[in-house]
C-alpha cells in the first residue's frame, strides 16, 4: 500500500490512450543529441555560432552550416546568410564565424545534418500518429494544457500515463501515491526517517518535474510562488518535486470536474498568511532600528 492507501500495482489505469509516449521519445532525444554533436564539432573548429544564434539549426544556422559544408569560409559571407532579427548581430556573427573549419569538420556536419533531416521526418510521422491516438482524449489534454507549466506534449504524456477516468482513484492522494509522488511514510520507534518518495511511474515523474521547472519560471502564478517559497527552505530539487505533486493533484481535480485550471495568483500565500506577513515585516523593521506603529488605511 502507498502512503495514501493506493495499491502498489503500477499498471497504466483504464481510460488511458493505450500507449506510453515514452516509447516514441527516442527520435526526440536523438535529435537533441545530434544538435549537440554539431555544436561540439563547431567548437572544435573554433566557431562560436551558438554564442550568437539562439538556435544553431534554425533557418539562419542551417544556411550557414550548409555554406560551411559547401566550402565557404569567409565570415562576412557567412554572416550575410542571417535572417530576421539575427541580422541585428552581424558584427558578433562575423567574429563568431572566424575559425579553423576544415574538410573533416565539414564531413561531420554534413553527416549530422543528413541525420537531422531523417529524424525530423520521423518526428513528424510520430506527431501525426500521436494526434490520431490522442484524438478521443483531446478534451482532457486541453484541460491539462491550461495548468501553468504544462504544455501540449506534457499534457498528452500525463493523459497517456494516468488516463482520463479518475474514478479509479478515489482521491487525488490515491493518484499521487500510485504515481510515486507522495513522501515516503517511514516511521520507526516514533521517529520519522527518510521521506523519499516511493517508486512510481518513472516517465510521469520526469514529465511532472519538467512541468514544475517551467512553472517556476512563470510570473505571478500560484505554482511559481509555491516553488520559490519552498526552495528557500528545502532546496530547488525538492521544491520541484513538491510542485510536480501539486500539478498532479490539480490534474486529478480538472479531470474529475471536467473544468479548466483557475490560477490562484502569485500573491496567494501573501493573502493567505496576511497576519504572518505583517508580523514578519514589523520584525524586520524593528531589527533595523525602527519603531513601528500600524494604522489601518481608511476604507
Plain-language structure description:
With about 300 residues, this protein is an all-alpha fold. The N terminus is likely disordered. It is extended and about 70 Å long. Helix 2 packs antiparallel against helix 5, helix 6 packs across helix 7 and helix 8 packs across helix 11. Helix content is about 55%, strand content about 0%. It has 2 domains: about 110 residues, no CATH class; about 120 residues, no CATH class. A two-stranded antiparallel ribbon has the order 1-2.
Low-confidence stretches: 1-9
Strand order of the main beta sheet, please? 1-2
Span of the ends, CA to CA: 54 Å
Number of domains: 2
Largest sheet properties = 2 strands, antiparallel
Beta-strand share of residues = under 5%
Number of helices: 13
By DSSP, the count of extended strands is 2
Mean pLDDT value = 87
Radius of gyration: 25 Å
Report helical residue fraction. Answer: 55-70%
Which structural class fits the helix and strand makeup?
mainly alpha
Question: Topology as H/E string?
Answer: HHHHHHHHEEHHHHH
- What shape does the CA trace take? extended
Characterize this entry briefly.
With 299 residues, the protein is mostly helical. 57% of the residues lie in helices and 1% in strands. The termini are far apart.
What is this structure's SSE topology?
Elements: H1 26-44, H2 59-70, H3 75-79, H4 90-96, H5 103-134, H6 138-144, H7 152-162, H8 172-179, E1 187-188, E2 191-192, H9 202-216, H10 222-234, H11 236-257, H12 268-272, H13 274-287
Antiparallel strand pairs: 1-2
Helix pairs in contact: 1-5, 2-5, 6-7, 7-9, 8-11, 9-11, 10-11
Amino acid at each position: 500500500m502507498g502512503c495514501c492507501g493506493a495499491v502498489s500495482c503500477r499498471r497504466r489505469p483504464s481510460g488511458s490512450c493505450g500507449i506510453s509516449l515514452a516509447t516514441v521519445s527516442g527520435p526526440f532525444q536523438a535529435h537533441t543529441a545530434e544538435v549537440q554533436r554539431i555544436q561540439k564539432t563547431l567548437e572544435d573548429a573554433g566557431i562560436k555560432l551558438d554564442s550568437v544564434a539562439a538556435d544553431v539549426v534554425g533557418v539562419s544556422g542551417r544556411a550557414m552550416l550548409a555554406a560551411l559544408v559547401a566550402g565557404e569560409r569567409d565570415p562576412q559571407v557567412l554572416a550575410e546568410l542571417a535572417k530576421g532579427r539575427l541580422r541585428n548581430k552581424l558584427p558578433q556573427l562575423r567574429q563568431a564565424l572566424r575559425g579553423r573549419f576544415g574538410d573533416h569538420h565539414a564531413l561531420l556536419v554534413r553527416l549530422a545534418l543528413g541525420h537531422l533531416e531523417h529524424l525530423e521526418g520521423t518526428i513528424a510521422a510520430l506527431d501525426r500518429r500521436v494526434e490520431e491516438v490522442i484524438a478521443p482524449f483531446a478534451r482532457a489534454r486541453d484541460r491539462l494544457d491550461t495548468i501553468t507549466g504544462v504544455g501540449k506534449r506534457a499534457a498528452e504524456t500525463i493523459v497517456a500515463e494516468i488516463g482520463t477516468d479518475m474514478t479509479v482513484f478515489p482521491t487525488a492522494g490515491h493518484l499521487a501515491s500510485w504515481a510515486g509522488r507522495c513522501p515516503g511514510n517511514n516511521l520507526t520507534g516514533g521517529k520519522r526517517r527518510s521521506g523519499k518518495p516511493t517508486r512510481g511511474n518513472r516517465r510521469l515523474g520526469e514529465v511532472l518535474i519538467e512541468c514544475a521547472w517551467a512553472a517556476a519560471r512563470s510570473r505571478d502564478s500560484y505554482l511559481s510562488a509555491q516553488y520559490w517559497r519552498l526552495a528557500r527552505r528545502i532546496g530547488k530539487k525538492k521544491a520541484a518535486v513538491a510542485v510536480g505533486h501539486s500539478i498532479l493533484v490539480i490534474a486529478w481535480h480538472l479531470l474529475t470536474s471536467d473544468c479548466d485550471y483557475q490560477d490562484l495568483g502569485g500573491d496567494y500565500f501573501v493573502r493567505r498568511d496576511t497576519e504572518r506577513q505583517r508580523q514578519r515585516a514589523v520584525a524586520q523593521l524593528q531589527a533595523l532600528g525602527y519603531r513601528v506603529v500600524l494604522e489601518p488605511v481608511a476604507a
